[in-house]
Specification:
Helix content is 11%, strand content 23%. It is built from nine helices and 30 strands. Helix 5 crosses helix 6 and helix 6 packs across helix 9. 55% of the residues are buried.
Length: 600
């Protein structure tokens, strides 16, 4: 998932009339919201979102920290869990508690009350993702536990301390978040996502085989069930409800008590097994998934992944797979009920059961797609909210791009202005979306008007057979054509050259770094400008986590990889998972050295 410098085709399709920012009814006015006359327009236009005709969005709140999941109480108060740590470059967390209560008391569609509470950095907290409401209590993920706060009458924030409900949840590894759902009977379903990408002996490493059997599944990679009415329950492998789920961040439950979860598909098929996959399959395989959760279900991870083109689970290369042909034990695993484009990262989900939106949206799910990194060096995808219609226990039709434009000009982890991370439905039927880059909360409402609720204004998701496209840095073509080496020489002309290299090598290294030569996904982790992302460090400074920053040391690190990173959650495979020649390794090392030795 790399440097998406240009928008996907469906950006162009979005109607200009939908580029409004929205929702100005209070809960008491919600019954009138869908009955606005055709002459009504969106009073605000600052959200930057692209929506189907008839919908509007406001910036409900902004700058509240790295906002993850959110939930809306019956009185319209929006509760948000915020997070911190290595996912965000270990930046300074927002002052105050990691939990936030937001309220609009004026009917302006924007929160004028913003109260923080709960654990702080000073009390040892780091925040979290999961949050929920049940029987007058606010439940939240904090570090390795799920806790409950009592919400007293007349106050939107708790007055007493948190009560532990489940403690000792496993942490660490690639996916330390703990989202959850509580059903009407108080069953507490917790996602304990995997510590690794595919249960390899050496995580995310070239040709490392899968551990068989995968012992990680004893405590991770599934859904665990507890009782929200009980205190001080200790984590136990015995409480596992379903297994084989890599990372189920999104939960939804319907009126028939069916539970749906999203699944983040695995990464690095081509990077770790280049002889079995084509370079473009790094960007197009495997699909993200929507699962129907069942007790005792096995959804296939790590042995299997879902190939949406074939419409079936296939055997992973770590367990004897041959690039998508073999099925083996995957024939007995539970397949998804719907799929979405590879690496779009479904971070949250909400079932729409209100009446404000048109009937088309009722009883379907909205899914917040955080956006990709592993599509590098091809154009990134996601960074939007999609809608998937449901018909009972199965999907109905293809998903639709519902809300887009969160990322701004560039869809990539290091340059996206905002990334959807949570989604929730309010009691009045408004849809709330959280952003974990700058802590923005959006509120989306339906106002009707000309062309509203028309199928012609809806944008389908890309099909499973949609190509990866071209390398992102070379995506746009001028009418006079392009010459691959012309720009590279100019872009690197002012850079210094290390002893033992040449200007031509630095220019080639620029192209290798940006995926134009060799297929390396460098930008996916280190950013298009090499200034770092939550997945990889800044390469333009003078502080080096490994080696001394010399030309030789940089080349050695690129060749050997970083199997045990010091500050980041994922290892770097040798040569970033690409099959670079020795000349290409030397060239990209020279380019990185040059970036870190530029004159101030």
């Amino acid at each position: 998932m790399s440097d998406g410098r240009h928008r996907n085709p469906w950006f162009v399709i979005a109607m200009l009339g939908a580029m409004c920012a929205a929702g100005f009814s209070t809960p008491a006015q919600s019954a009138q919201t869908g009955a606005q006359s055709a002459s009504d327009t969106c009073p605000e236009t600052d959200s930057g979102l692209k929506l189907p005709a008839g919908f509007c969005a406001t910036i409900f709140a902004d700058g509240i920290g790295h906002a993850r999941h959110l939930v809306v109480a019956a009185n319209g108060v929006v509760y948000v869990n915020t997070w911190s740590g290595r996912y965000y470059g270990n930046d300074t967390p927002h002052a105050g508690g990691f939990l936030v209560a937001l309220q609009d008391t004026t009917g302006a569609g924007k929160a004028n009350v913003n109260n923080r509470f709960g654990e702080t950095v000073q009390s040892g907290g780091a925040g979290g993702t999961g949050i929920g409401l049940y029987k007058g209590g606010l439940f939240a993920e904090i570090n390795d536990k799920i806790v409950r706060y009592t919400l007293p009458a007349g106050s939107i924030v708790p007055q007493g301390p948190a009560v532990p409900i489940v403690t000792g949840l496993p942490l660490g590894g690639d996916h330390p978040m703990r989202p959850f759902l509580i059903d009407r009977d108080g069953s507490l379903y917790i996602d304990l996502a995997t510590a690794t990408n595919s249960c390899q002996g050496q995580n995310r490493t070239l040709h490392s085989p899968g551990i068989d059997p995968c012992t990680e599944l004893n405590t991770r990679g599934g859904i665990w069930r507890y009782d929200a009415n009980e205190r001080n329950q200790a984590f136990s492998p015995a409480e596992r409800f379903a297994t084989g789920i890599r990372n189920a961040e999104g939960f939804a439950i319907d009126a028939a008590d069916r539970i749906f979860v999203t699944q983040h598909g695995r990464d690095q098929l081509y990077a770790n097994w280049p002889e079995r996959y084509k370079p473009e399959e790094e960007a197009t395989q495997p699909a993200e998934e929507l699962l129907l959760l069942k007790r005792g279900g096995d959804y296939g991870w790590p042995e299997c992944y879902y190939d949406a083109i074939q419409g079936r689970l296939v055997l992973a290369p770590e367990y004897g797979g041959d690039g998508g042909k073999k099925v083996g034990p995957c024939a007995t695993k539970s397949a998804p009920i719907a799929s979405f484009p590879a690496h779009w990262a479904p971070n949250a989900m909400a079932l729409y059961d209100k009446s404000q939106f048109p009937a088309h949206y009722r009883h379907g799910v909205f899914i917040a797609l955080h956006g990709s990194w592993d599509r590098a060096p091809y154009r990134q995808g996601g960074y939007n909210v999609v809608f998937q219609a449901l018909a009972g226990d199965h999907a109905s039709g293809q998903c639709e791009i519902f809300a887009d434009g969160f990322a701004g000009a560039v869809e990539s982890p290091d340059q996206a202005a905002h990334r959807p991370s949570g989604v929730a439905v309010g009691p009045d039927g408004s849809l709330y979306v959280s952003d974990d880059v700058r802590g923005r909360i959006y509120r989306i409402v339906y106002r009707g008007g000309p062309g509203a609720d028309s199928a012609a204004t809806r944008t389908p998701c890309p099909s499973a057979t949609a190509p990866a496209g071209k390398v992102s840095v070379d995506d746009a073509k001028p009418p006079e054509g392009t010459h691959p080496n012309a720009g590279a020489a100019d872009a690197t002309a002012s850079l210094p050259v290390p002893v033992g290299a040449t200007k031509e090598m630095v220019a080639l290294g620029d192209r290798v770094y940006h995926g134009e030569v060799g297929g390396a996904p460098c930008t996916g982790c280190h950013g298009a400008n090499a200034t770092g992302t939550p997945l990889g460090p800044d390469l333009t400074g003078t502080h080096w986590l490994w080696g001394d920053g010399s030309y030789a040391a940089i080349a050695k690190i690129i060749s050997a990889g970083v199997p045990q990173p010091k500050q980041y959650r994922a290892p770097m495979p040798p040569m970033g998972g690409a099959q670079l020649t020795s000349d290409q390794v030397s060239a990209v090392a020279a380019y990185i050295w040059a970036l870190s030795h530029r004159a101030p």
